[in-house]
Amino acid sequence: MSSKYGLRQSPITGKKLFHNGIDLAADLDTPVLACLSGTILECGYNDVYGNYVVILHDNNIKSFYAHLKTFASTKNSYVQTGEVIGY
């Protein structure tokens, strides 16, 4: 775990901010797995998160995966728990 849930110093701004998730680090080319089954809402890129994926799970829960090298899934596809969604 490279960053915990809660108050932390932002790696982007340097300011103390609330971090509403956890960050897990992995070696380059490590398969990234869906934490739960769901539908891919977004596969995209932005300047802060790089390549990212958002999965919509039951009960309107979303999981977010950032800083991916490549995608292994596409928008609107359904993925199972443990399925590779990127690297």
Biggest sheet record: 4 strands, antiparallel
By secondary-structure content and strand pairing, the structural class works out as mainly beta
Give the percentage of residues in beta strands: 35-45%
- Number of helical segments with 4 or more residues: 0
Strand neighbour order, sheet with most strands: 6-5-4-7
Based on Cα principal axes, name the global outline.
globular
Helix content: under 10%
- Number of DSSP-assigned strands: 8
Radius of gyration: 13 Å
Give the distance, in angstroms, between the N- and C-terminal Cα atoms: 17 Å
Mean pLDDT: 95
Low-confidence stretches are: none
**H-E string:** EEEEEEEE
SSE layout and pairings?
Blueprint: E1 6-9, E2 16-19, E3 32-33, E4 38-46, E5 50-56, E6 62-68, E7 78-79, E8 84-86
What's this, in brief?
The protein has 87 residues and is mainly β. It has strands spanning 6-9, 16-19, 32-33, 38-46, 50-56, 62-68, 78-79, 84-86.
Could you please describe the fold and organization of this structure?
It is a single chain. The protein is mainly β and 87 residues long. The chain has no helices and 8 strands. The strands form 3 sheets. The chain has a 4-stranded antiparallel beta sheet, with no helix packed on it. Strand 4 and strand 5 form a beta hairpin. 11% of the residues are buried. The model has no long low-confidence stretch (mean pLDDT 95).
